Amino acid sequence: MTTSHRGPARHEPERTDSGYLVVEAAVAIPIYVFFVLAILQISSFAIAQAKIAVAVNSAAMEISQYAYVRDDSLLITNDASVIIEALNSFSSGLGGSGDIFGVGGSENPMAQLINASGNDREVARDILRKHLRESDSSLASMGVVGGASGVDLTDKTSVLGGDKVVIDATYQLQLTFFWDVTIDMQAHATTGRWGDG
Fold first, then answer.
1. Does residue 14 form part of some domain?
2. Is residue 143 a part of any domain in this protein?
3. pLDDT digit string, tens, across residues 92-121
């Protein structure tokens, strides 16, 4: 008879996957956060680009309308200047400022364009900034370096000569989440001048 001696039963520890879950979470969560921040950055850039493109297009359309009045070959310019001078004279005769339409003021974009003597980039810049003024703080928070003031016009901008109004703007976008990197961007608008067919 053989007797077997049995000792106390051994219990092997149960295997759990909790250690693997911690390691997977330590790897996956930073990758997930990186992709969420990257998507936020890209969408912020897209919104900033859209706002600037709308402002550039609006400024080009506004300038094309003003250029119609400015064009020396059109009778409306001569008639308008005669009427404006008569009304200003009438206004000053009544004790007014003598500039009832603000033609002499720098805030009136039509007056700027009418009185401009070849400095079309400066006039275009003022009109573009007028369109960007409401978006200044949001553009800065979206990564546009300098906000609305950071949008500048290139030498390709032409609003007083030719049959087209061309506005070519440049600006920089700054990556905010990961690196101190800026990206050069450009917005362009071309439209025909009013009255040129």
1. no
2. yes
3. 766 666 555 555 555 566 666 655 555 778
